[in-house]
Structure formats: structure tokens, C-alpha cells
Specification:
This protein has about 650 residues and is mostly beta strands. It has two domains: about 45-305, Thrombin, subunit H; about 370-620, Thrombin, subunit H (Beta Barrel). It has eight helices and 29 strands. It has helices spanning about 5, 210-215, 285-295, 315-325, 445-450, 535-540, 605-615, 635-640, and strands at about 45, 55-60, 70-80, 85-90, 110-115, 125-135, 150-160, 180-185, 200-205, 230, 245-250, 255-265, 275-280, 300, 370, 380-390, 390-405, 410-415, 435-440, 455-460, 475-485, 505-510, 525-530, 550-555, 570-575, 580-590, 600, 620-625, 655. The strands form four sheets. A seven-stranded antiparallel beta sheet has the order 1-9-8-11-12-13-10. A seven-stranded antiparallel beta sheet has the order 15-23-22-25-26-27-24, with no helix packed on it. A six-stranded antiparallel barrel has the order 2-3-4-7-6-5. Strand 16 (about 380-390) and strand 17 form a beta hairpin. The relative contact order is 0.16. One of its GO terms (biological process) is proteolysis.
Length: about 650
């Protein structure tokens, strides 16, 4: 075989040009690529006190025998009969099955880490899986019904201070609405990078929703069986990517009982704050007991001294120092050896007194502002770069959107904020030829972005723009070359003149701006987040400037999500039926990023102005070459020579 034949096939980044006769098939505001929220992670939780959840296990499902990469999940040590050892783990079926084919994952590529706190601890205790069984799991199409799996470990895990099973509920137990319940996991906490999971075990308190509340909280049209599934958590306090299969436990008397298994959440970015969805354990208790009898027994019991206490680097360093202390001095910290418990000493669902559960955060929760957009899922997003009028060596960046006034299969119009082009009344006017517009990009520093730069031919700032008051903060750009509609470049829809958007509507913001007030650089990849439309009277109070409702639209900074420096000019888009409509242009916020109501130029107030300016600005004669509208390829896609599908694995699994 030749070298050429042996090499991995190169990824061909195709971007099909839309012919004029096909224009009606590609309406504005409709993206080929899905607009997604990140997967399931413990959100707004805190680090659990180490070993305080001794039933929690960390599952690794490797892609290959080399065991370098794979998916991660959570799970729970359970027991059927009284004893001081268990070889059973309960998790989600989708953790151990292929999301596409529903084929079983090879058991020889599955590892369970018990007594885990830090999943990267080199001393962590690993146990192999001997066999597993799932219920009649129906996958995504079946609403993830019967999302439960029982694993038999090769080695029985002794009960110690660090490893104990959680209690199983009674098969007749009802939904624990109003009870004290918690979810735990090693899932991602940072929405801007949902693939980055937490090394430390996290937990969060969640409320159980009634069946009626759960029905209202479901994504439209998604099947759900309330007899074996339930909803828990809200307001961004729930499980998310990497927490799949993990336990939802509720306190019953002095024990913790396993009532739920993390299953899935909303994939719709507009409803990211919706509750998590769980498999209800009580209806499966008989199934668990029956399957336990059918699974082959474990080989042998894990040695007690194989179960390790997690020690921080400071604790390990202190232990080493203690070895050198004078015998008269008492060491302040010694490594504890695990002690096997007798059946009489053990009670399920109760952690060791040495490691009490931390039931509330002791420090600030990580602020979650947004997440990386699925590449090209917002094909109307553009990036504007121009030199600072006072310092040519400094580049000013803003967002913008491709819009369309007349039917066709291309556009030369970009909508942005006036202050992106003129910050103050005294600022010199920017030359159109100094303004670069990058279309169809995802990573602003990637090689493909250079090919997708279009210069500005002319622009118009609203004639009544007031830089001090941010009145009429809107501008229209005419590009030198019209951008053809493709899979990565399409216009967003515009609302009707004076069209209203209902207060409370959850909309999307996107941009390459900073992720916090203290950040020093802009983001490389396009980020997005959600924000609900706010009442104008509420958002206009206590402002140092005067704003008018016909000009300004506001959003609430729920969970401190909002825009920041570098996002100016970008679109606020809201979904109407199957299309995304731009109702706002990012304008200003009187305080630090995402700490107060964000303000936008109300697009519906300017539709007639936009149409008029399009007629007045000189027309574009050239078209941007569509062969330059190439798909963005990540470094991993380039190395492997394969395209990463938008949903290769279940969105509720996380990579490690």
C-alpha cells in the first residue's frame, strides 16, 4: 500500500452555493446546523466534601483498547442484600450504549472508579466491569424511556469510609416532591466550554417537580413517560455534560435514598434553564432484583487496602513532613487506612462521620455566562474589525448580522451598532475601506477566517444617533461584495415595523466578546447565551441617561448571562415558529458585564429606516466567491481528517 493510501482521508470542507431558483428553500433565520445548549453538567453547585457521597462512582467508557479517550458518566454503588461488600453499580442505559445504534459498549473498555473525589487522582481505585444489563431502553426517539443499566463489577467493593452503597427506594415509593434532594457528578461547570468537566466531585440541591410542572417544562413534542421519568431542578441548578447516570438522592430519615438517575435535559438553547430529566428508580426495583440474579457473580472481593482516601497535594506534603518530625511531636495529618465495616456497623445511604456531606456551597459558585456555539449554527453572525481612530495599532472589534431587505440568494447588508463606528461625537469618521467584515466564521483567528473577509463599501449611521445617550444606536453597512447564501452564510429575519416581542421571551445573544469584566482578551470561538426579554419600565429605572421605549429593548441578566465588551453590534435573536428574528442590536449596559439589564437598539423601530438606507447607499456590483466560504475545521478535525458531527455521541455524555 502506498503512503498516499495509508494516510487518513483529508476532510473536504464543502459549502454548497445556493442558486437563485433555490432561494425560497433557504428562508432567512433558518440554520442548517443545530443551535444547541451545552450538555448536562452540575450547574450552580459546589464541591462536595470529599468521600461524603461514598456511593458515587465515576464511569469511563473508552473508545479503543488503548484506553486514551472516551465518554464519562456517573453511577451509584447499590446493594440488594445486607452485607459488607457490593459488586453492583446503577447508571443510565445511554451511558453504556451507542447513541446511534444502541449497541452495547464493550465491557473490556469500561472502568469504574470507586471512592472517587478527584477523577484525576493517580491513587484512585479502579474496578473493571464483568457484565451489564439494560432495560428496554428506547433511545432518543423513544424519549429515553427505561434509561437504566445495572453493572456487575469483576471485584466486589468492600464497605469502607470511602465506599458505601446508597439505599434503594421501595417499589411503591412516590415521587419525593418537597423533599431534600441532591444531584452529584463530575460534569462540566463552565458553559463557555461544556467539554471541560470538573475534576472534583460536585453536588447541588434540586427541587422535584410535580407531574403538572414537569409537563409544562418539557421541550415541545418530546415524548415523556411520567410513570418512570420525572423532572428536577430549575433556574440553572441541575445536572448537565458528564453527569449522566449519576444519582439523585433524597434524604429519608437519616439515610439517603436513590430516587433518580440523571438521564437528559433540554437541547434547546432558549430553554437552557429548564429542569433536568431523570429515570424514576422505584418502578425498576423489581427489575434490579431480577437482573442481579441473572448476572454472573463477581470474581473476588477487592482488597480493603486497595481503596484509598483522596489526599490533596498539601495533605500529602504534610504527611511527608510528618515523617521527619520528632517522635515527641504529634503529626497534624496522617493518611488513614480504610477499615472494612461489618454488616452490623453499616447502614446504607449514610456517609462516614469523617466525611459529612456539604449541603450548601461555602464559596462563590462559578458564574456561567454562555457557551461555545455549534459551528456555523448562527450563519448570520459577522465579526467587524476596524482600527481605533486615535491609535491605528489597536483594533476595535464588534459583532453584526447579515440581513436581507429584498428576496434573493445573496446580501450585501450588515446591521450593527452605531457606536461601533463612532464612539463619541468628536470621534473622526471611520473610512469604509478600513472596516473588515468576516462572514461565515467560527474561530476568529483560524486560517479560514482570512479567506472570508469582506471590506465595507459604505455605511450609514442613524442621523439621530446620540453617543452620550445611546439614542438610535444603529448603523447599516453596505459590503463591497455581496455574500452568497450558503450553509454557513445566511441572513437573519427582520421583524415587522413596530412589531412587539413579549416580555419573558427567551432569546439568544452571540459574539466574540470578553466573557467577564476582568477578562483581558476577546474570545477565539463564537460564544452564545440566552436572555429573557425584560419589562422596559423595570429596566429603565435608576439609569444615568434617558432612554425611550420605542428605541430600546432590554433583557434580564438571569444567572448573570449577558453581553460584554466586544459583543457590541451583535444581534439579539428570538425564535418565531422555525425562524430566528433579530429584535435587538447590542448597545450598552450601564454597569459591569451581565450584572444589570442589558440594552439593545429595538430593531422593529428601524425597519423603514433600514429599507430607505439600502436604497440610498450605492449598490454592490461584485459577489463574494462562494468557493471561499469554507467550513471551519477544528485542529482535531484537521489532524484526524474527519468532520465532527454535531451529535456524534449523546449530548448528555462528556468526553475525557
Amino acid at each position: 500500500m502506498s503512503v498516499e493510501e495509508m494516510a487518513a482521508p483529508a476532510l473536504v470542507a464543502e459549502c454548497r452555493h445556493i442558486r437563485p431558483e433555490e432561494a425560497t428553500k433557504y428562508p432567512c433565520g433558518v440554520s442548517k446546523f443545530p443551535i444547541t445548549a451545552p450538555g448536562n453538567r452540575i450547574s450552580n453547585g459546589w464541591e462536595a466534601a470529599k468521600h461524603s457521597l461514598p456511593w458515587h462512582v465515576f464511569l469511563m467508557m473508552y473508545d479503543s483498547p488503548e484506553e486514551r479517550r472516551g465518554e464519562q458518566c456517573g453511577g451509584s454503588l447499590i446493594r440488594i442484600k445486607p452485607a459488607n461488600v457490593t459488586d453492583l453499580v446503577l447508571t443510565a442505559a445511554h451511558c453504556v450504549k451507542s447513541p446511534r445504534t444502541l449497541m452495547d459498549h464493550p465491557v473490556d473498555r469500561m472502568v469504574v472508579v470507586v471512592g472517587v473525589h478527584d477523577r484525576t487522582d493517580p491513587r484512585r481505585t479502579k474496578v473493571r466491569v464483568k457484565k451489564f444489563v439494560t432495560a428496554n431502553y428506547k433511545g432518543d426517539k423513544g424519549g429515553k424511556e427505561n434509561d437504566i443499566a445495572l453493572l456487575r463489577l469483576k471485584n466486589g467493593v468492600p464497605y469502607t469510609d470511602y465506599t458505601r452503597p446508597v439505599c434503594l427506594p421501595s417499589k411503591s415509593d412516590k415521587l419525593p416532591v418537597g423533599k431534600e434532594c441532591y444531584v452529584s457528578g463530575h460534569g462540566a461547570t463552565f458553559m463557555l466550554n461544556p467539554a471541560s468537566t470538573s475534576n472534583k466531585l460536585l453536588m447541588v440541591d434540586v427541587n422535584i417537580l410535580t407531574e403538572e410542572q414537569c409537563s409544562k417544562d418539557m421541550d415541545p413534542g418530546k415524548p415523556f413517560n411520567h410513570s418512570i421519568q420525572f423532572c428536577a431542578g430549575s433556574n440553572d441548578r441541575s445536572a448537565r455534560a458528564g453527569d449522566s447516570g449519576g444519582p439523585l438522592v433524597c434524604k429519608k430519615e437519616n439515610s439517603f435514598v436513590l430516587y433518580g438517575i440523571v438521564s437528559f435535559g433540554s437541547n434547546d438553547a432558549r430553554y437552557f434553564d429548564r429542569s433536568g430529566k431523570y429515570t424514576f428508580v422505584p418502578p425498576f426495583v423489581e427489575w434490579i432484583e431480577q437482573m442481579e440474579k441473572q448476572l454472573p457473580p463477581s470474581d473476588e472481593k477487592l482488597p480493603v487496602d486497595a481503596v484509598h482516601e483522596y489526599l490533596t497535594q498539601n495533605e500529602m506534603a504534610q504527611i511527608e513532613r510528618n515523617k521527619t518530625l520528632n517522635a515527641m511531636k504529634k503529626p497534624t495529618r496522617v493518611a488513614q487506612k480504610p477499615v472494612a465495616l461489618s454488616p452490623s456497623e453499616y447502614k446504607c445511604g449514610v456517609p462516614s462521620p469523617e466525611y459529612p456531606i456539604l449541603l450548601s456551597p461555602t464559596g462563590m459558585n462559578r458564574i456561567v455566562n454562555g457557551w461555545e456555539a455549534e459551528k456555523h449554527s448562527l450563519p448570520w453572525m459577522v465579526l467587524l474589525n476596524s482600527p481605533d481612530p486615535y491609535n491605528k495599532h489597536v483594533t476595535q472589534s464588534c459583532g453584526g448580522s447579515l440581513i436581507q431587505v429584498h428576496p434573493g440568494n445573496r446580501t450585501d447588508l450588515v446591521l450593527t451598532a452605531a457606536h461601533c463606528l463612532k464612539k463619541t461625537a468628536d470621534s473622526p469618521d471611520k473610512k469604509p475601506s478600513d472596516i473588515s467584515v468576516f462572514v461565515g466564521i467560527h474561530h476568529q483567528y483560524a486560517d479560514d477566517s482570512v479567506r472570508k473577509r469582506v471590506m465595507v463599501q459604505s455605511y450609514k449611521i442613524h442621523e439621530k444617533y446620540d453617543p452620550k445617550q445611546f439614542h438610535n444606536d444603529i448603523a447599516l453597512l453596505k459590503l463591497e461584495k455581496a455574500v452568497p447564501f450558503s450553509e454557513i452564510t445566511r441572513p437573519v429575519c427582520l421583524p415587522e415595523q413596530d412589531e412587539e416581542i413579549e416580555v419573558g421571551t427567551v432569546c439568544l445573544i452571540a459574539g466574540w466578546g470578553k466573557t467577564s469584566h476582568h477578562a483581558t482578551i476577546l474570545e477565539s470561538e463564537l460564544k452564545m447565551t440566552t436572555a429573557p426579554v425584560a419589562d422596559f419600565n423595570e429596566c429603565s429605572q435608576n439609569l444615568p441617561i434617558t432612554v425611550y421605549e420605542e428605541q430600546v429593548l432590554c433583557t434580564k441578566p438571569e444567572s448573570r448571562r449577558g453581553f460584554c465588551y466586544g459583543d457590541s453590534g451583535g444581534p439579539l435573536i428570538c425564535k418565531q415558529n422555525d425562524r430566528w428574528v433579530q429584535f435587538g442590536v447590542v448597545s450598552f449596559s450601564p454597569q459591569r458585564c451581565a450584572t444589570t439589564f442589558d440594552k439593545y437598539a429595538r430593531v422593529s423601530n428601524y425597519i423603514e429606516w433600514i429599507v430607505q438606507q439600502d436604497k440610498l447607499l450605492p449598490g454592490t456590483k461584485e459577489e463574494f466567491p462562494y468557493e471561499d466560504l469554507v467550513e471551519y475545521r477544528s485542529p482535531m478535525e484537521i489532524v484526524t481528517g474527519t468532520r465532527k458531527p454535531s451529535s456524534v455521541s449523546s449530548p448528555w455524555l462528556s468526553r475525557f
